[in-house]
Write a structure and sequence with these properties.
Elements (H helix, E strand, L loop, with lengths): L9 H11 L2 H8 L4 H13 L5 H11 L13 H13 L1 H12 L6 H4 L5 H8 L4 H10 L2 H9 L6 H10 L5 H12 L16 H9 L3 H14 L1 H10 L11 H8 L4 H8 L4 H9 L3 H14 L4 H20 L5 E2 L5 E2 L1
Helix pairs in contact: 1-2, 1-3, 1-4, 2-5, 3-6, 5-6, 8-10, 9-11, 10-13, 11-13, 11-14, 13-15, 14-15, 17-19, 17-20
Length: about 325
């Protein structure tokens, strides 16, 4: 990728592409994405400005073989996004998401919880039985569930995570009944099809997205109650230092999706093995520049380092889910 495009991460490139191909084609692409991806890409689309034709050309070269014409970016973004979202998702679902991207609102049914703000989800489920909360949390994407958990009372968090870890699926009828319970909290309905929720990996994935201090506290509390269960969850968790165990091809793919600024901050607190893994999977020139940037960066708050590392790990887990790389937990088990 040319230097002018090097600082764009995967989400920014995707946003530029979608803003370039027209409403109909963009809406078809968005239909294939999950709630978090749509929100993330949509937010970047809404903030696009001063995108040069050269950058657009380089992005299009990355994603398609030929492009005959370019469209103007940054003009009428809001109307464009509304039309694309409605075509991709329908008016009901898109209405809530558009407001979250451009202003802020909500949607329908158990499945629609995935499209809601974490604080709103926590407010809806906070008075339910912990087992109900656990099922709902397991039904959400892991990063979304982690955000919801942050808004729930501290005393119930370990109990909920233990219940999620102990789930071994749920009958479709029970899930449908849960959907009806959720519908009583707000109007609408949803078709529930999947019963494969919960389990040790689900609990580990949610913890992976929590702030480090909160994550450690919850694990400690779980181990106090059930040491064996706590160890099993911890063994499946993937931390930043585990990137040293990812193969070179996977690291190279990951580096293409991470901005240089986030990488620099994340590496400030990284193990030497991880740093060397990163350096050896870059060109000599890029590696030297990164080393220089690390030295010039100066002290960085630990909280900033942890946030940057979590951001990179979130990208790595999404790539693992799509089969682009394989992650191993602390216990060395491979999972994608």
């Amino acid at each position: 990728m040319a230097d002018t495009n090097a600082k764009l991460n995967g989400t920014e490139r995707a946003a530029i592409l979608l803003m370039s191909i027209g409403e109909q084609d963009a809406s078809e692409v968005l239909k294939q994405l999950g709630p978090k991806e749509v929100q993330k890409v949509g937010s970047v689309m809404a903030s696009l400005a001063n995108v040069s034709k050269q950058q657009v050309g380089e992005v299009l070269d990355d994603f398609v073989s030929t492009v005959e014409e370019q469209t103007a970016l940054g003009i009428g973004n809001e109307d464009y996004i509304r039309n694309v979202m409605i075509k991709a998702l329908g008016e009901d679902k898109a209405g809530g998401l558009i407001d979250r991207i451009l202003m802020g609102r909500s949607s329908k049914g158990l499945d629609a919880l995935k499209w809601m703000d974490p604080r709103a989800v926590a407010e809806i489920i906070r008075l339910e039985h912990p087992q109900i909360i656990a099922i709902v949390m397991a039904y959400l994407d892991s990063d979304h569930a982690a955000e919801v958990l942050q808004f729930l009372p501290e005393r119930v968090r370990p109990d909920i995570l233990m219940r999620i870890a102990s789930l071994d699926g749920i009958q479709p009828q029970a899930l449908q009944e849960l959907d009806e319970i959720m519908e009583k909290q707000f109007s609408g309905n949803a078709n529930v099809k999947s019963s494969s929720v919960g389990g040790l990996k689900s609990a580990a994935n949610i913890l992976n997205f929590m702030e480090t201090a909160v994550e450690s506290e919850i694990i400690e509390r779980i181990k106090e109650t059930d040491g064996q269960l706590g160890d099993k969850i911890q063994d499946l968790m993937f931390v930043f230092d585990n990137l040293a165990e990812v193969d070179n091809r996977g690291i190279q793919a990951l580096l293409r999706e991470v901005s240089s600024e986030v990488l620099i901050i994340a590496l400030k607190g990284a193990d030497e093995a991880v740093k060397e893994k990163i350096f050896t999977n870059m060109s000599k020139r890029a590696s030297e520049m990164l080393r220089d940037d690390l030295e010039a960066k100066g002290p960085v708050r630990l909280s900033e380092v942890e946030t940057a590392q979590k951001e990179i790990l979130a990208v790595a887990r999404k790539m693992a889910d799509s089969g682009e790389l394989a992650l191993g937990g602390k216990g060395g088990e491979q999972y994608v």
